[in-house]
Amino acid sequence: MSEAETNNGDPEIERINLRISQSFREVVDETWRERGFNSRSEFIRYALRESVNHPEGAGFWKDLAISEAQFDDGESRSSEEIKAAYGSDDE
Description:
Structural class: mainly alpha
Helix content: 55-70%
Protein name: CopG family transcriptional regulator
Distance between the termini: 41 Å
InterPro entries: Arc_rbn_hlx_hlx, CopG, Ribbon_hlx_hlx
GO molecular function, one term: DNA binding
Number of strands: 0
Mean pLDDT: 78
Keywords: DNA-binding, Plasmid
Strand content: under 5%
Shape: globular
C-alpha cells in the first residue's frame, strides 16, 4: 500500500482503528450526516478535538459510552431525555 493510500500524502496523518458496536456506528453515521459533516472520519476527528480542547465536556463522552453499553444491553433513553440532560436544542 502506498503512502498516499494510507494518509493522503500527509506525513502528519496516521490511521487508527476504532471498534464500536454496529448499533452505535449507525447512530454515529446518522449524526454526522445530520450535522453536515462530509464523512464519518471528519466527524470523529471533530469529536476527538472537542473532547481534548474542552475536557469539561468529558462527562458527556463518558455518559455516551455508558449509554452505548446500556443500549446494547436493551436499555435506552429517548433523544428527548438526553437533550434535556445536556441542554441541547439541536433538531
